[in-house]
Amino acid sequence: MSSEDAYDVRPGVPSVEHYRRLRTHAGLSDRSPEGAALGLASTWYGVTAFQGGEPVGMSRVVGDGGCFFQVADICVLPGHQGRGLGRRIMQALTDELELRAPAHSCVSLIADAHHLYRKFGFTDTAPDSICMARFLPAA
């Protein structure tokens, strides 16, 4: 059995608790429980990767469902990285977008792992456009 066979990648999002754990243990910033609950409920499509019934990776697509989509929360726990799991997660998201998203939809992401996302057809937009973000302060 290959290391890829040890994982089950299936549609759906993790619980709020698992979502927050996956993000922080994979080196992403934490989100509030309230924000995570609202965001997960608004997911257009998500996948979670499991090993032995435990979530070890995830990602999801958010957006308006018609014109604009964003790939978000791409994370794999460090002990499971380098085994093709990120590629399998991205393939599942890409397959669903190609199946259900309308023609000419814009799919974006903010990338750290440029080499992976280029394999799925993502290209740099600079200098024509750049990603900008604003994070709201805690209340």
In short:
The chain is 29% helix and 24% strand. The protein contains 4 helices and 5 strands, in the order E-H-H-E-E-E-H-E-H. It has a 5-stranded mixed beta sheet with strand order 1-2-3-4-5, with helices on both faces.
Description:
- The protein has 139 residues and is an alpha+beta fold.
- The chain has a single domain, classed as Aminopeptidase (3-Layer(aba) Sandwich), CATH 3.40.630.
- The protein has four helices and five strands; from the N terminus they run E-H-H-E-E-E-H-E-H.
- A five-stranded mixed sheet has the order 1-2-3-4-5, with helices on both faces.
- Strand 2 (45-51) and strand 3 (54-63) form a beta hairpin.
- Helix 1 packs across helix 2 (33-41).
- It starts with 7 loop residues before the first strand and ends in a 21-residue tail after the last helix.
- The mean pLDDT is 91.
- How much β-strand is present in the residues? 15-25%
Low-confidence residue ranges: none
Question: How would you characterize the largest beta sheet?
Answer: 5 strands, mixed
User: What is the SS-derived class?
Assistant: alpha+beta
Number of helices: 4
Structural shape: globular
Pattern of helices and strands: EHHEEEHEH
Under CATH, the topology is which? Aminopeptidase
CATH class: Alpha Beta
Head-to-tail CA distance between termini: 49 Å
Mean pLDDT: 91
* Major β-sheet strand ordering: 1-2-3-4-5
CATH architecture: 3-Layer(aba) Sandwich
**What is the number of beta strands?**
5
Task: Please name the fourth-level CATH homologous superfamily.
Answer: Gcn5-related N-acetyltransferase (GNAT)
The figure for the number of domains is 1
Estimated helix fraction: 25-40%
Radius of gyration: 15 Å
